[in-house]
Amino acid sequence: MNQKNLLGLDSCFMDMDDPIELFKIWMLEAEKKEINDPNALSLATVNKKNEPNVRMVLLKGLSSKGFVFYTNFNSPKSQDLKNHPEAAMCFHWKSLQRQVRIKGGVKQIEDNEADLYFNSRPYESRIGAWASDQSKVMKVRKEFLDKINEFKQKYKDEKILPRPKHWSGWCLKPSSVEFWLGDQYRIHERLKYNKIKNDWKKEILYP
Question: Are 101 and 90 in contact (CB under 8 A)?
Fold first, then answer.
């Protein structure tokens, strides 16, 4: 029989007051089990017409401030976030039968933080950030490849390749974090943290 925490849930939920600390532990487990991109998450936003949209992005930063991902700031997701600075994230680790859902407000990260991450990326990825008009229509694929070559000629030195002003990161500061553990017959276990003023309050949810 599996050990339980103080709330009667599986011991993997532990007995932590801070959901970000619990998330870090679950992420470490995911990194051991998931073959590809354990940091992949679905990101949901809403546009000016209140139409929802969702896509996959990669988590590239995590601290007490929140969850960070990077993107083109001219992209639809960034336009959504500029107009409605709230979003939802969902991580799903099938090999562990675990899921984490996060909601909260978002804001742009500091330029020095964005510069630091941009400079850590491979040269080709940095060139791609310059060459891509993300989500815009192109006539033929060659159009994009030609732009890549143009920027490679412009920035031949890999060490001197500045971050485009239109490329940076968003940080989601969570107002709620829900941890989900799959079980047979859909008798799943769910633990939700809600931010009340400066404290986190826990509650168990029916599956």
Answer: yes
Domain encompassing residue 18: 11-118+166-205
4: its two tokens: 């339980």
Residue 186 known to be catalytic? yes
The mean pLDDT value for 95-107 works out to 97
Domains held by the chain: number: 1
Torsion of CA 31, 23, 104, 70, to 10 degrees: -30
155 within domain boundaries: no
Instruction: Provide the terminal-to-terminal Cα distance of the chain, rounded to the nearest Å.
Output: 20
154-163 confidence digits (pLDDT tens): 999 998 999 9
How many Å apart are CA 101 and CA 178, to the nearest integer?
5
Check 101, 121, 186, 190 and give the catalytic one.
186
